[in-house]
Amino acid sequence: MPEPMLALAGVNTHIGQYHILQGVDFEVPRGGLTMLLGRNGAGKTTCLRTIMGLWRASAGSIRYDGAEVTRLATPALARMGIAYVPENMGIFAGLTVRENLLLAAREGELDERRLAWIFQLFPALQKFWNSLAGNLSGGQKQMLAISRAIAEPRQLLLVDEPTKGLAPAIIANIIEAFRELKRTGTTMLVVEQNFHFARSLGDTVAVMDSGRIVHSGAMAEVAEDEALQTRLLGLSLEAHQ
Fold this sequence. Notes:
Layout: E1 6-15, E2 18-28, E3 33-38, H1 44-51, E4 59-64, E5 67-68, H2 74-79, E6 82-85, H3 97-104, H4 112-121, H5 123-127, H6 138-149, E7 156-160, H7 168-183, E8 187-191, H8 195-201, E9 204-209, E10 212-218, H9 219-224, H10 226-233
Parallel strand pairs: 3-8, 3-9, 6-7, 7-8
Antiparallel strand pairs: 1-2, 1-4, 4-5, 9-10
Helix pairs in contact: 3-6
């Protein structure tokens, strides 16, 4: 078996007095999209933030591309090719679309070919190129957040709830963009509640409950087994659409 792009082993995270992650173990295969599923409060966002170095693991190991990265700071992880799209999108509302993307580019200069590719993924960004990011719709802000993360080539993309609160037409656009990212070989770990998104794009899945991984395997297995969905998530994934 090829070495995974990302591997967590026995990862614990404390936030103040709260023990959020309690021995998390799972792998993210190279070149695929792994869904991180679970009930609200299961620890999914904490897991992404711990991987990205925004919160420090109190125990355990995080390996990325074969290297131990558990103690590395967020800027060092970004330089190694990891990007993170948080649930709140993390865009700068007082800056234009262009300025937001320039901030994400190395040395403040966008590659013209890559920018043209981003415009193919999200045509709305070209239309609103000089508009303030704060004036965009929720879906357009999410497009900008994802585009910031891929303004430079990335090996691993961490995305927290990319379709939350978005209209079906916007979700369809984001699904197609993620399909294109998969075609480029980008490895992705995505927290998501929308079943259509998870079923359409997920290759593998890890399910969290109370700070632990309670199931991992092929996404197709979970998508096709309603009883397994109910046991792991408390309800059928169809209810998450």
